[in-house]
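Predict the 3D structure for this chain.
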Amino acid sequence: MIELDAYAADCRVHGHVEFGEGRLSDQLNRTLKLHIRDARLEDLADGHVVAMPELTVGHEEIFSVVASGPRGDAARRLNTRTARVEVEVGPYRIVGRVHGPPTADPFASVLRRAAWLPLTEATVTYRRGPDDVTDKVTTLLVNRHLIRTFRVAEASSNPP
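Done. Predicted structure below.
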């Protein structure tokens, strides 16, 4: 069982999910629904929290997930190069690094990727009630099918 920290259309979703072996990104790419235990939904409109013992959500309801759990087999990791990108998905603006083959443009490889696109050194910005919220995340898995905007980030677009 791993801890889930996700971003949805109108709330943040927290809880626990049961997955098999391997990386969270691989598990997400293999399933169409998440069965969340001890779910807590934090409303973006006013911040109130609703707790539920169980919740099932489809991938089309989740914009991104904070990567947790095992990183995968170190022997299978490839050398990559990165590009800073800016992504808009739902009410969230994300600036992070997309990885790709060392001989190709990482930005161009995104369309050939699986549904859950990993971004490293990510900053997620959104509104919760009247407040601007910024989360810094080591690795964020973004639902590629729900991305509204995906572009190369300008040098000034990364908050300090």
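The chain has a mean pLDDT of 86.
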